[in-house]
Amino acid sequence: ELVQQLRGQAEQRQVDGARVALQHNVGIGGAAVAGIVKAREEDGPFQNLLDFCERVEGNSKRLMENLIKAGAMDCFGARRAQLLAVCEDAMNRAQEARKDRQSGQGSLFDLLLPADKKDTELTLPDLPEWPLRELLAFEKDLLGFYVTGHPIEEYREAIAAYQTDDIADLPGLPAGTMVRVGAYINGVDPKVTKKDGKAWVILNLEGRDGTIECLVFPKEYDDIRGKNPAAFANNKVVFVEGELNQRDQDETMRLQARAILTPDQVAETLTREVHIRIYENDITAAGLTAIHDACRQHRGAVPLSLGLVAANGDLVFSRPENMSVRYSDDFRRQIAPYCRPDAIIVKGDRTRPPPNHRRGAWRRGGADD
Description:
Blueprint: H1 2-6, H2 12-26, H3 30-43, H4 49-55, H5 61-70, H6 80-102, H7 106-110, H8 114-117, H9 132-143, H10 156-162, E1 178-192, E2 199-206, E3 211-216, H11 218-227, E4 237-245, E5 254-261, H12 263-270, E6 271-279, H13 285-297, E7 299-309, E8 315-318, E9 324-325, H14 329-335, E10 344-348
Parallel strand pairs: 3-5, 6-7
Antiparallel strand pairs: 1-2, 1-4, 2-3, 4-5, 6-10, 7-8, 7-9
């Protein structure tokens, strides 16, 4: 009930889990939960952070901070970064207000005119919200699941451009199918072979709507680590190429990795064309110069085409001579301020990786071969 009554935004299946997670992970005991629920039922919804602190007693600083990080205070309409910045001040002022009421001075506040009461309210600092990945990390740590979104959302366009299949669809594909998937590493389990002590690893790969276990055997583990030392870092988005495998029909489908690439590596190796739409109503001479300079700074082998959208809606395509680029996140960030959000279109290679030369290695013994 706690999260439901404070946030009023989560789905019921999330609320039940969040209530239990907050009690165990955030450190809210049953009495504290009951106190919060009782305060709301007796005097109505909490109006702001200060109102919450005044009406609910016994809140520790750690508890308040974790409630904010978990998103339980989002109903107050402020950014979590702002709430955390004034949290301690709100607790101190609430404590003073309770002392005043106990000494009989609380009624003085009630006599203030609305304009005078504003002087006693908390002033929120003008702070930007934490980056999405930080918001999500706090939610996962404190609740056990994401509420605001998913870490993979930041790479949604890249995943759509380069992956062959969505993680949620992998269980329905035949064993032996070669795939490339964009995934969030949400678990790293290092292993050592019994036979010769070689390192390998099991990864838990997570998509927006599904998960799959990924096995990286010794040979591939060494190859991947040599090309990309950070490939096995937890809480990172990567692209995994490999073969779908299962020992028999009754077991869960798993992915046997052959290569693990960062989003930048995939963009540089699998981009086949970049298309930029330029709108007559938006573009300026300075914007055109900036886009041109970015293209020159990121010269490469990927063909570049321009779509010129006139004020009357007419569209003219142009492919500048001797103007190919090396596509990357850095290139996209450089031209993004001069384009509409949907004006940069990337065509990626979505063909399946070639068959695995060690096909069936897992079924023959896998890591202990």
